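Assess this:
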Amino acid sequence: MKIEEYLRSLPHSIMTGEDVELRNDVLREIFRFASLNTNDIFYHLGCGNGSGVVIALQEFGVKKATGIDNSPKKISCAKRTLEEKNLYNGSFRCEDIFHSDINDASVILFWFADEHIIEKMIPKFSQLKNGSRIITIWGPLTSCLPDKVVFPYILNVVPFKRAKDLREQMLAVFETDCIDFVVAWEFAERYSKAIGPKEVGNDRFLTILQSLSIWINAKNLGIACGDEIPQPVKNYMGILRTFFNIEMEHLLNQKST
């Protein structure tokens, strides 16, 4: 089956990330990356169990922290945690992020994979005060150049800098003149380690899929290093096809094959 068919066969919650909770050590890395501090008003959109809000309050001393999620169960659990820890400058709201009031935010953690959601939120983010920071994971805001990258963490600052095209944006994210398979693997591995459970280590299958996706996108955009398809790419495509019945070759532009 083609990779698109395989992805459609996965549970919706896996594809959207709604059932994936970032580890506490990852949240701390993200907050240090964004220079979260006592002057900030922090929002976590899609806050899940609320750990991000608790850590922002307890360890980074933000003025105020708010978590927003559309799951009543998760918000109820997060509110109990806040009460148990006697954190009175924090709050949780069970809301649709499209309609939430976030106008006082100075830092927002926004980890969504759905392009429709991302594109719909950009005008809302653009109305925040200058200097407000939007943290994303894996990809920057659509059509925007990142202001800071420590992959897979990406920071866009209001007012947003617009990219001329996807090619310029991708080169800015990967901070290189061209992308070879070693770079693609390294960045895919960073992402796997950031979102996966710490005790299991690196998820090799996810890393293979992500690294191939990165390299293929780079190849199609003309920013891969060299004209030939590297042997590791051929090997991993063969492994996916032979052992998992997943085909990715069709994603390459015809001129690349």
